Amino acid sequence: MEDLASDTEVDFSIRDLANGKKLFGVAQCYKCHRIQGQGGIAGPDLTPAGYRFSTHDLLETIIDPNKSISDQYQATIFQMEDGRTITGRVVNLNGDQYWVQPDMIKPNELVRLKVQEIEDMKPATVSVMPVGLLDNLTSEEILDLLAYLKSTAPKPADELGE
Questions:
Q1: Could you tell me the pTM of the whole model?
Q2: In 10 A of CB 161, how many CB atoms?
Q3: CA dist 141 to 111, 136, 138, Å?
């Protein structure tokens, strides 16, 4: 974070947005996040993120996803009567069972937990978003990715002259 903090104030209009979009896929962001209607649904839609968050905050969230976890996307830790511990996001409550998604990268793999077999459950303190997604990218690539995220945000009404 320290290495890139001063770079987040650069002029993003000169960045390579096509490369940033490609890197959104390379960093596996599409597996969980939507942007402009494309991508996964396990995480929040990032289309408005460039408007809603500063560049510094976007970068910090990507680098340290555990710093602030939205309760909308927070996982739950289930302690089962048989001794198993299962951590994941509850994606469906159906009568006497929970459908839990333990791996955000594999959204179709669900675990069914019977409510009567759950001994304890508590919110997870670790984000389901993996750490280290940018580890294989250069500083220039990260700046292109950030520029792409910033570019997809819709313009606020007051900037459109409305």
A1: 0.77
A2: 6
A3: 36, 10, 5
> What φ, ψ does residue 98 adopt, rounded to 5°?
-110, 140
The residues that bridge with 114 in the sheet, in sequence order, are 97
Provide φ and ψ at 119, rounded to 5°. -80, -40
- pLDDT tens digits, the chain, 162 residues: what are they? 455 655 556 678 889 999 999 999 998 899 889 999 999 888 889 999 988 888 888 999 999 999 988 888 889 999 999 999 999 999 898 889 999 999 877 878 999 999 999 999 999 998 888 888 899 999 899 999 999 999 987 766 545 454
Domains of the chain: 2-68+129-160 (1.10.760.10), 76-123 (2.30.30)
Structure tokens given for 24: 């959104």
